[in-house]
Amino acid sequence: MIEITSMNDMWLTLLLTLDATLRLSTPLVLAAMAGLFSERSGVVDIGLEGKMLAACFASATIAHFTGSPWLALLAAVAVSLGLALVHGFATITHKGDQIVSGVALNILVSGLTIILGLTWFRQGGQTPALTGEGRFVTLDLPGSELLHSVPLLGPLYKELISGHNILVYLAFALVPLVWWVLFRTRFGLRLRAVGENPKAVDTAGISVNALRYKAVMIGGVLCGIAGTYIAIAHNAQFTRDMTAGAGYIALAALIFGKWRPLTVLVACLLFGFLQAFAMRIEGVDLPVIGSIPVQIIEAVPYILTVILLAGFIGKAIPPKAVGRPYVKER
Amino acid sequence: MSLAIELENIDKRFGAVHANVNVDLQVREGSIHGIVGENGAGKSTLMSILYGFYHADAGTIKVFDKECHFQDSHQAIAIGIGMVHQHFMLIDNFTVLENVMLGAEGGYLLAEGMDKARTELQRLAREYGLDVDLDATIESLSVGLQQRVEILKALYKGAKILILDEPTGVLTPQETDELFKIFAALKEQGVTIVLITHKLREIMAVTDAVSVMRQGAMVAHVATETTSESQLAELMVGRKVLLDVTKSDIKPGEVLLKVKQLNWQDQHGVMRLKNINLDIRAGEVLGVAGVSGNGQSELLQVLSGINPIQDGCIEVHGNSFTVKQQTNAGKMREFGMAHVPEDRHKMGMITEFSAAESAILGYHKDAELNNGIWLKPDLVEKRCLDLMQAFDVRPNDVKLKSANFSGGNQQKLILAREMEHQPEVLLIGQPTRGVDVGAIEFIHQRILDMRGAGKAVLLVSVELEEILSLSDRIIVMCDGEITGRMAIEDADERSIGMLMANAQQAHDPLQANEKQGVQA
Predict the structure, then answer these.
(1) Is B179 within the bounds of a domain?
(2) CA atoms within 13 Å, Cβ hemisphere of B302
(3) Strands B425-429 and B481-487, how do they pair?
(4) Which terminus of chain B has fewer Cβ atoms in its 10 Å neighbourhood, N or C?
(5) Of B173, B202, B237, at which residue does a domain stop?
(6) Of A177, A186, A259, A328, which to mutate for an interface test with B (greatest number of B Cβ within 10 Å)?
(7) Residue B270 and residue B221 share a domain
(8) B92 touching A, CB under 8 A?
(9) Neighbour tally for B383: CB within 10 Å
(10) Is residue B369 part of a domain?
(11) For chain B, what is the domain count?
């Protein structure tokens, strides 16, 4: 009897860790898909972090004032889209350096959100904590209570599949959609082409700039959703630098997943799992090893990406024209 | 017969460069029209304007008797103009089908257009003899096949006028013949072809009419049958040109460069040089023929000391270098080897440097230029001025940025730098690539002067004519191997062409290429 209970406990622990994995992966998936569009079109997007952070702040602020998560989402998307357009204006229209523009956005947002937070709310750069409404609430899928008693699968359904908010489902539904757009539509064909050889696209009579703007804007929208998720679905307020490097991890996942939607999803889940795992074992004494410093596990995504880039796990070949502004005249 | 293209008073400037000056052009429908001119004469600019890629500052464009104002290439494509660029506009990791469809997908979703495109392409392939595997990725195809994809792309988009910019530069003679057969098939179907080239022999072989450009302006329109190669050359350059150089009789002396069993592998593990053996005597020019990318660049880089020796032995004037006895580019210079690299912008000079600085690269440690630790600027500039005078580099302004000289003058400056140092062995890669006809004549003469002075010259060139007119002996390279050796008396274009495609293995090189493409 006791053995069965402990089996069930272990199963539950695993499920809860995986559940946390899904929740922690969601912003990574959204941001990585944003980066995928942008980089497939040839525009490096190191500003994922900044756009998400700005979206966090915007959504938390609007949710606080209006109490509507949907208005908050709208505002976050608008702010993030605006920043994406700034990046586009600097790098597509004016052929500026994409890394410099992206980093500038990150620094700008990091400072601006704190200053605005301090002046508007006087809570040390945070926004006021949201109560029940104003947040995206979890959705219980039909039948989760009913199936609860079914062994193994019941808890799987209840803990892992049911009980997330709508943005989580949106994020994971997005991945096959991105794949389909990229490989089965005209827009996707042109997008992939412009990231490889913009001149070929230009001579085919297609506007390189328009394509890149579209890609960057899609990235802006997705970062807006990601930021909203972090601030008012996963948390209940904005705090300083609350994205905590999620944008960079998403970028790492993008590279690790070789710029392909499905493998990027796997990379996001892996990195999300590492975060969930780090949280679970924090302070826990493991047999033999003792307690593992959380920082080591948190560094794993970056270490894996470096190993990948060094060529140990297959080869990550970026879109050929990524990072290079397209200049037409000779 | 009606006109396919009529250009009037086309004018175009890029900043200070007047690329097209008041250009007129008439091309009859269904004809093959050649446009010749030196590099920088404005041919490509003119065609890019016709294709809607650049906008003319002034002038009118009429296509099939309709006046056109192209805002972008899309409109030019829509009216039936197709262009095959010198550097192919293909996406390397896309399939042939995807490349052809780009810009003419036929709907928001790919699936619907794809089947239609496939059937249409199969029809075009049959009609014009343009066979190519539609599902192969571009990177797996030979250059000749990639060019077919470009032609297919244009035809698929409904091109009635096909513009080809230097189409034969990357082809073997056999592939070139095949291309000309395709031209004939296209012409038969009523397609108008505009052929931009600097190879006069091709103009004489395939065109019906020819227009000559010089310094941005049209200088002549003639029917091909009423003109000759030498007349065209004269029109291009604006003065009489000697197309053939005369070589003096020299008895070759001792062996100055000897290469034994040289193998070399690149970073991807591909063998770029396979068992290379050769020697060059004093007073001898050894020509290395081959389609570019068959190991010639690697050969130059290993011989000049830029890349380390991995296997085999190089002997320069009696000093031998091996894996154990490594060398480098600086040391090779000291042992009397000079190198004029194939790509002058990447390896020959630093385009942002002044002429004076570019003129001492590699020789910057010369005692006469240095004063302990400092370079002496006045001596550096004097050295440059001397070189410029000796090789007629224009303008002879030592402070001018290297990038601002024309291709021919840049090349002359590099040749001057390497030759005036009186090396024993001279390695030259593509001496006249992107160089105008007048400078070609000069450069060829200087190479023969080196030969006359008893130096050993290794000449790598993709221009077969150049190899044939300068060399004493010829080796042919294909896929990293020497596939043939011959004395100049026994050499002819056709047999070298076969060796360039390594025709011992498959008797028809084109078929061999096709097989390769289909399998890939």
Answers:
(1) yes
(2) 28
(3) unpaired
(4) N
(5) B237
(6) A186
(7) no
(8) yes
(9) 22
(10) no
(11) 2
Count of structural domains, chain A: 1
Put simply, the answer to whether B92 touches A197 (Cβ < 8 Å) is yes
Containing domain of residue B204, as a range?
A: 3-237
CB-based contact B74 A205, cutoff 8 Å: yes
The predicted complex's ipTM stands at 0.86
Comparing CA positions, the residue from A156, A161, A157, A162 lying closest to residue A12 is A156
Claim to verify: residue B275 and residue B227 sit in the same structural domain: no
pTM of the model: 0.77
Does the beta-carbon distance from A203 to B85 stay under 8 Å? yes
pLDDT digits (tens, 9 = 90+) for A30-78: 999 999 999 999 999 999 999 999 999 999 999 999 999 999 999 999 9
- Residue A19 is encoded by which pair of tokens? 């559940």
Taking CA atoms, what residue in A is nearest to B76?
A205
Q: Classify residue B392: in a domain, yes or no.
A: no
What single DSSP character describes residue A290?
B
Q: Identify the pLDDT of residue B516.
A: 42
For chain A, the distance separating the N- and C-terminal CA atoms, rounded to the nearest angstrom, is: 79
Select the residue from B73, B79, B102 to test the A interface by mutation, using most A Cβ atoms within 10 A.
B102
Residue with tokens 């084109």: B510
Last residue in a domain, options B205, B237, B269: B237
DSSP string, B105-116: --SSBHHHHHHH
The residue written with tokens 């990046």 in the block is A87
Residues B21-74 have pLDDT tens digits of 999 999 999 999 999 987 778 888 899 999 988 899 999 999 999 999 988 888
The answer to whether the CB atoms of A184 and B105 lie below 8 A apart is no
Q: How many CA atoms lie within 13 A of A38 on its CB side?
A: 35
Tens-place pLDDT, residues A190-236: 999 999 999 999 988 899 999 999 999 999 999 999 999 999 999 99
- Does a structural domain hold residue A10? no
- Chain B CB within 8 Å of residue A285 CB: no
* Residues of chain B with C-beta less than 8 angstroms from the C-beta of A185: 108-110
